[in-house]
Amino acid sequence: MSSFWKNLTKGIVKSNPTFILMLGLCPTLAVSTSLDNAVGMTAAFVVVLVLSNIIVSAIRNYVPDRVRIPVFIVIIATLVSVVDLMMQGFMPALSKSLGIYIPLIVVNCIILGRAEAFARRNGILDSIADGLGIGIGFGVAIFLISFIRELLGTGKLELFGFKLFSIPGLDQNPAAIFLFPMGAFLVIGLLLALFRQLGVSKYE
Amino acid sequence: MSQAIAVVLLTVVGFAMGLAIFLANRLLPKEDKTLEEAARIKEFLPGADCGACGYPGCFAYAQAVAKDKQVFVKNPCPTLSQDKEGMKRLEEYLGLKAETKVGKKAVVHCTGRSEVIADYHGVTTCAAAVQVASGYKECPYACLGFGDCVAVCPTGAISIDPERRVAFVDWEKCIGCGQCVAACPQGLIELVPGDTPQYLGCNYQSLRDVPGRKRCPDGCIHCHICEKVSNGAVGWDEKKDLPVFTQTPVPTAIEKCPRKIIKKTVAYTEPEEEETAAVGS
Amino acid sequence: MNRLIAIFFGMALVNNMVLVKFLGLCPFFGVSKKTKSAVSMGIAVTLVMLVASAVTWPIYYYLLVPYGVEVMKTVIFILVIASLVQIIEMAIKRTNLTLYNALGIYLPLITTNCAVLGITFINVDQSYTFWEALVAALGAGSGFLLVLLIMSGIRERLEYADTPRAFRGSPIAFITAMLLGLAFLAFKGMI
Amino acid sequence: MRKSEAYPVLFLTFVVLVAVVVLTLTNSITRDKIALAKKQAVAEMLSALFPNMDSFTYDDKTGTYTILADKTTIGYAFTAEGRGYGGPIDILIGLKPDNKTLQGIRIISQQETPGLGAKIVEASFLDQFSGISVDQVKLARNGGKIDAITGATISSTAVVKGVRNAIEQRLGKGGTG
C-alpha cells in the first residue's frame, strides 16, 4: 500500500508534470485562462490519464517494443474520443463547458509521457496511483496558473458563475496580456523561479 | 452497412502502418552488435567525456574499444588510470592488461601578479573579458581569473587564487585531458608530460617595447640567463621569445633567474652532483 | 502559385506553430538547450509533418469523408503520426546513437506533439488541396525549426549571462519564450 | 508466437481494429443523442431570438428555419460563419419576415481569446444587431451601426462580415426561401 501512496504524492510536488517535468504545456497554456477551465480540464484529464494508465499497464507484457508508441497513442486517442462522445451524448450541459478541452487532451504530452515512462513498467495499482498523482499535480499547477492569469487578466475571479472577488481598479481595464499565452509563459516562468527560491524544486 | 466497410478499411490502414514499421525494421541497417558491447564498456568508464583519450566522449571511446580491444591496450583511458581499482575491473572485463602510460599534466604560464588597471563589469568569463582591450590587467597576456578553464575541467583540478585572480592546477587531480587548453582565451595553459620538473610561470612575449619589468613584478625579461647556465638543457622559442624547458631538472637556471619565475613542479627531483658542475658565465 | 507562398509564410511566421498558436511546446522547451539537438528535433518534426500530411490528406478525403466517419479523424491521424515517429526513432537509433540520446524522451513525444497533429487538423479544417497541405506542413515545420533555432541560440548565451540563481535554466527560458512570443505578434497582419 | 517478426504488425492491427470498433459503437449509440442535443441547443437559441415563437420548421434545401407563432411566419433564421482570430465563428442569424431588418443574432460556437474576442457572445455586442436593417450591418467606423469591442476588432469584424455575407448571399438567392 505504501508504494501506492508514494506514487500518488510523488506526482503532486516532486515530479509535478507542469513545473518539474514540464510536459503538457500546450493545453496548460491554452486553457489556464479561467478557474472554470482549470477545473474542467483537470477533471477530464484525470479521468483519461487514469484510464490510460490502467489499460497500458494491463497490456504492458503483450506490447511488442517495436510498436509500443503507436499502440499506446491509439489507446489514448480512442479513450479521449469515447469520453468526448459519451459526454456530448449523455451529459450535454457538462460537454458544453468541457467540450473544447477534451480533444486537447489527445495532444497532451503527459499521458503518453506517463505511459512511456511509468505505466509500461509497473503494475496496475501503481499506475493508478501515478495517474492520480500526476493528474492532481497537473490540476494544482493549472489551477494556480489560472488563478493568477484570470485575476490579472480580467481583474475579477469567478468560479462556476458566482463571483469570488474583484480588484476595483483592475477590472475596468485589466492587463489583457495575461489572457494571451505569452502571459502564461511569464506566470509559469515566475512561478518556477519562486519554487526554486522556496526550495521546492532544485536549482539547475 | 457503410459503418462496417469503414471499420474494415480503417483496420487496413492500421495494418498498413504496422507493415510500414515492419518493413522499416527489416530495411534499416541492423542495430550493430558493437553498440550493445559499447554500452556495457561505457559502464566502466568514468563518463567525464573529457576527450583525454582523443575520442569525442566516453561513448565514442567505448565504441572504439568494442570494435578493437587493442585500442584499450595502447591508449588506456587516462581518467580511469587514476582510479586503480576501476581500471582493474575494466581490465578483468576485457581480459587484458593496459600498458601504463605517463599521463600529461596542465600548467598555467602566469603568476597573476600583473597590476589590475581597470574595473571590469561585464560577462564574467575570460572569453568575454579578453575582448575588452585584452583584459583588465596591465599585462595583456595575464590570466583573468574568471575560470573558463575551471568550468571545463572534468575533475576540478583547476582553482582560482582569489586575490591574485590567477588559475593554478593541482597535478593530483589533473588527468591531462586538455579541455582547459582550448578553454583559455589567453592560451596560458599548456599540456606537459607528467614528469616535467619545471616550467616558466610567465607567458609574456616580449613586444620589444616596454620590458616585462614594468608590466608585472614576475614578468620574464628575456635575459636568456636560464639558457646559458644550463648548457643545452633549456631551449629558446624564438617566436615567443621565451625559454623552453625539457625533462631534465635545471636547478642552476631556477636559482640564477633574476625574476625567480621558473617554477618547480611536484615531479621535480634534485639532480645528482656532476650536473651542476658545468656552470656557464 | 502565390497562394502557396502565402500559405508557406502564413504557417511559418504569421501563424507560427510555437509562438502564435502555442503548439509543440513540450519539445520546444525540452530540446532547446543545445542548438545541435534543437536542429535535429526541428528537422525530425518537419519530416514527420510533411509525411504525415501527405498520408493523412488522402485518408481523410477518400476514406473518412465518403463513409461519414470523420469522428475517427483523431485516432487515425495520430496512428499515422505515431507510426512515422516510430520509424524515425528506429532510423535515428541505428544510425546516430549520440543524437538519439540527445533527443531522449522528446523523440517519442513528437507523436503527441501538438504541432504535428495540429498541422494535420489545420490541413483538413482549412480544406487545403493536397499540394497546399504539403506546403503548409513545410511552412509549419520550418517555422518550428526557426523558432527552435532562435531559442537554442539564446539559451546557450544565457548560460554565460549572470541570471539570478533562481532563474537559471527553465524559468529564464519561459521568460525568453514570452519575449519571443511578443516579437512574433508583429507578424500578425502580414498575410 | 510472440517472438515471430509478424507479431508486432498483427498486434498493432488488432489494437486498431478494437479501437475502431469501439469508436463506431460509441458513435452509433451517441449519434442520435448528439443530434438531439444540437437540435435542442438551436431551439433554445431560436426561442431566445424570437421570444413568442412556438414552433419552427427547417428546410434543409436552403438551410433556413422558418419561425412560426400560431401558424403565422414571424421570421426566418439561418447559420453563417465568420473567420475569427482563433478560428471559425458559427453565427445564428434571425431575420424578420420582410427579410430586410434583422431580428438579432446569436453566436453558436467560437474559439476567440477568452476575455477579449470571446466578448462577442455578450448581449452588449449582440443586441446591436437587433432591429437594424441589412445595409446597416457594418462597423460604426465605416458607417454601420455596430461598434467593435475594444481590443477585439478582428473578432468583431469577423462577426459583422459573416452576418453580412450570409444575408447578401441569401437575398441574392431569391430571398423568402
What would you note in describing this structure?
The complex is a heterotetramer of chains A (204), B (281), C (191) and D (177). Chain A is 68% helix and 4% strand. Chain A has nine helices and two strands; from the N terminus they run H-H-H-H-H-H-H-H-E-E-H. Chain A is globular and about 60 Å long. Chain B is of the alpha+beta class. Chain B has two domains: 35-94, Orthogonal Bundle (3-methyladenine DNA Glycosylase II, Chain A, domain 3); 104-280, Alpha-Beta Plaits (2-Layer Sandwich). Chain B has twelve helices and eight strands. Chain B has helices at residues 2-27, 33-44, 58-67, 70-74, 78-82, 84-94, 126-129, 148-152, 179-183, 212-215, 225-229, 251-256; strands at 104-108, 158-161, 166-169, 189-193, 198-200, 234-237, 242-245, 262-264. In chain B, strands 1-4 form a two-stranded antiparallel sheet. Chain B has a two-stranded antiparallel ribbon with strand order 2-3. A two-stranded antiparallel ribbon of chain B has the order 5-8. In chain B, a hairpin with a 4-residue loop joins strand 2 (158-161) and strand 3 (166-169). By secondary structure, chain C is mostly helical. The longest helix of chain C has 30 residues, at 35-64. Chain D has 177 residues and is α+β, with helices and mostly antiparallel strands. The longest helix of chain D is centred in the N-terminal third of the chain and has 44 residues, at 6-49. In chain D, 35% of the residues are buried. The model of chain D has no long low-confidence stretch (mean pLDDT 81). At the A-C interface, helix 2, helix 4, helix 7 and helix 9 of A face helix 2, helix 4, helix 6 and helix 8 of C.
Largest sheet of chain C: none
Find the count of extended strands of chain C (DSSP E, 2+ residues).
0
Shape of chain C: globular
Q: Could you list the spans of chain C in which at least 5 consecutive residues all have pLDDT below 50?
A: none
Beginning-to-end CA distance, first to last residue of chain D: 65 Å
Number of helices of chain C: 8
* Widest sheet: strand ordering of chain D: 1-2-3-4-5
Produce the secondary structure layout.
The complex is a heterotetramer of chains A (204), B (281), C (191) and D (177).
Chain B: H1 2-27, H2 33-44, H3 58-67, H4 70-74, H5 78-82, H6 84-94, E1 104-108, H7 126-129, H8 148-152, E2 158-161, E3 166-169, H9 179-183, E4 189-193, E5 198-200, H10 212-215, H11 225-229, E6 234-237, E7 242-245, H12 251-256, E8 262-264
Antiparallel strand pairs in B: 1-4, 2-3, 5-8, 6-7
Chain C: H1 2-14, H2 25-31, H3 35-64, H4 73-95, H5 97-103, H6 114-125, H7 130-158, H8 170-184
Chain D: H1 6-49, E1 55-59, E2 64-69, E3 72-83, E4 88-95, E5 102-109, H2 123-126, H3 153-172
Antiparallel strand pairs in D: 1-2, 2-3, 3-4, 4-5
